[in-house]
Predict the structure of gibberellin 3beta-dioxygenase.
Amino acid sequence: MNSMSESFKAANIIPLDFKAVLGLPDSHTWTPTTEYPLILTESVPVIDLFDSSNAMSLIGNACEKWGVFQVINHGIAIDLLSELELQTRRLFTLPADQKLRAVRSSEGFTGYGLPRISSFFPKLMWSEGFSIMGSPAEHARQLWPQDDHTNFCNVMEQCQKEMMGLSEKMIGLVLGSLGLTHEDVKGLGCQAQAQGLLHLNSYPECPDPSRAMGLAPHTDSSLLTLLYQCNTSGLQVFAHDTLGWVPVDPITGAIVVNIGDLMHIMSNARFKSALHRAVVNKIHHRVSVAYFYGPPRDLKVSPWIKLTDPDHPPLYRPVTWKEYLDAKATHFNKALEVIRNTTSS
Ligand SMILES: C=C1C[C@]23C[C@@]1(O)CC[C@H]2[C@@]12CCC[C@@](C)(C(=O)O1)[C@H]2[C@@H]3C(=O)O
Ligand SMILES: O=C(O)CCC(=O)C(=O)O
Ligand SMILES: [Fe+2]
């Protein structure tokens, strides 16, 4: 085990043992930029799903302006979200060597590791993650070989189920706001085939937050992402009109909904995927949980016919989620440009 963790360390592909360092190591020191200010006078919309009379139009406006909004009264029980936070903290507070038993393989999607976008930056991020697709039992056994991991698995499985349900509901509302029905987008909105990935994020207390980066600016590759911030601030969204970073203040029990790149493609760029980042702080160990919702494995995603006409030609060529993730792994924030039709303006 030791030799494996040593070789990963040498290649810088496993997270730091955050508890073992006192100051910010050079490997994690970013040059602070003042290029884009923090904007405290604006905030992303908060939409009450219980008030179904105008939720759809509020969602449409939020997707056009921000690509992100928060939902309340979404139907996922607060007790389950609290359990989710507890189990997430339980995992990340394990000793570093224990977490490394469940390290994500280079080709794998699941397990413990650095943010996948780390290779695009000269400095490392002040965070670690753990991805789950389907049953987490195998990784849970590696993490807790002696202890009971039933609770961890039950909570993660229940959350995946609930988040899949909420994603389906949100997709319906987002499509509706574009004037589309499930009939128009055959192949989407079918729980049996849609794919979801639950991703736990951990941002330990940081000795020098102004020179560290929790999660560097990125858009998600999904159709949409649900994010539970566990009541600790840190998420910021880039506002393209005012050119600044807007904090997404956590609201107890609220879930953040992000438009991902695949929805950007399907809406023919009417809805922009939201550029966002996570900052860290000195006092709190912040955890968050993202659920990436995507189309069925073999479905080629392309701009919806109904949203295109001679004045609005399809801007992107068809891609599967897997093909898009491959493009993202090579081109990162330029992936959307790479799949843009060359004939469109
Ligand atoms: C399905 C996925 C989306 C994601 C890559 C992944 O395979 C699993 C982790 C996801 C995540 C979480 C942190 C930010 C992000 C850009 C990354 O590096 O890994 C996203 C990826 C994404 O949306 O492209
Ligand atoms: O932790 C957060 O607030 C953001 C997480 C995120 O952007 C992600 O997991 O893709
Ligand atoms: Fe994200």
